[in-house]
Specification:
The protein is of the alpha+beta class. It is built from seven helices and eight strands; from the N terminus they run ααβαββαββαααβββ.
Length: 274
């Protein structure tokens, strides 16, 4: 009888401990999710206030220049003066367009993590498309070279939209810092995932990786800072990689070479060359 009581007591204690730890786990989980939600709401409020201030300047400028052209007393404006005003309107319109593009990109980060749509693609063809696009922003003496030990028929399951953001932010950063030579892109299968390393001449802005996108966006001049594509782009890259459970890293060597690399878990098949 005593043995039965002991077993019953042990089971009771075990169940009580299990209930305690499960309850504690879900309480902590709820607390974290609540904190994320509050942070997201605060972020949106602060960011929208900052954006509204930043948008007023180019909008007021466009309206002002347009009114000058349309005003009755200015019908005798010279063609060169009209061209100058139209040029200013065009510049401010481009600024507004850039702002809107950044807002659309930021919409992916409204919550605590982006929503990924995974599809299977030919990895070699996808990387080749990034190479072609990157060649449009490189200097005349710079080439973008792809290298991989994977089969050209290798298939990877990933979100092509976020992959495009990652690759083009990093390739654009590489293009800005490379005066001549090659930008080398090496991609391979590593640790059950995709590893991409982009090697280029010059020094990348590695210090920008210390700041997450939420801290970045809460600054009063956040909208103006988005014109600094290096700062904004790397913050976006870090947010994507963090959401994927991956790693983003920069290495510089004696001020003459930078290696920007990222890794994230990725299902791949037909990896080996035939």
């Amino acid at each position: 009888m005593s043995t039965v009581l002991v077993i019953a007591f042990i089971l009771l204690v075990t169940n009580a401990l299990a209930f305690y730890f499960v309850r504690r786990y879900y309480q902590q989980l709820l607390k974290r999710e609540l904190s994320k939600a509050q942070k997201s709401e605060h972020l949106k409020s602060v960011f929208l206030a900052n954006v509204s201030r930043s948008l007023r300047k180019p909008l007021n400028a466009i309206l002002g220049y347009s009114n000058i052209i349309l005003a009755e007393e200015n019908k005798d404006l010279h063609a060169s003066q009209v061209r100058d005003l139209v040029s200013l309107i065009n510049a401010d319109s481009q600024q507004l367009l850039g702002f809107i593009g950044q807002l659309l990109e930021l919409s992916n980060y409204e919550g605590s993590m982006p929503s990924f749509t995974l599809i299977e693609v030919n990895l070699a063809e996808l990387m080749a498309s990034y190479r072609r696009e990157a060649m449009n922003v490189t200097r005349p003496d710079v080439s973008v070279v792809l290298r991989s030990d994977l089969s050209p028929h290798c298939k990877a399951t990933l979100d092509t939209n976020f992959m495009h953001q990652l690759m083009m932010h990093l390739l654009t950063e590489a293009a800005k810092n490379t005066m001549k030579g090659d930008i080398m892109v090496n991609f391979k299968y590593e640790r059950h995932g995709l590893k991409v390393a982009i090697t280029y001449g010059g020094v990348g802005k590695t210090d920008l990786l210390t700041e997450d996108i939420y801290s970045f966006l809460q600054k009063e001049d956040a909208m103006m800072l988005t014109k600094d594509n290096s700062r904004f782009g790397l913050s976006i890259c870090k947010a994507i990689i963090d959401a994927l459970g991956g790693e983003l890293d920069f290495e510089t060597g004696n001020g003459s070479k930078t290696v920007a690399s990222f890794w994230f878990p990725c299902k791949m098949r037909d990896k080996h060359k035939r």
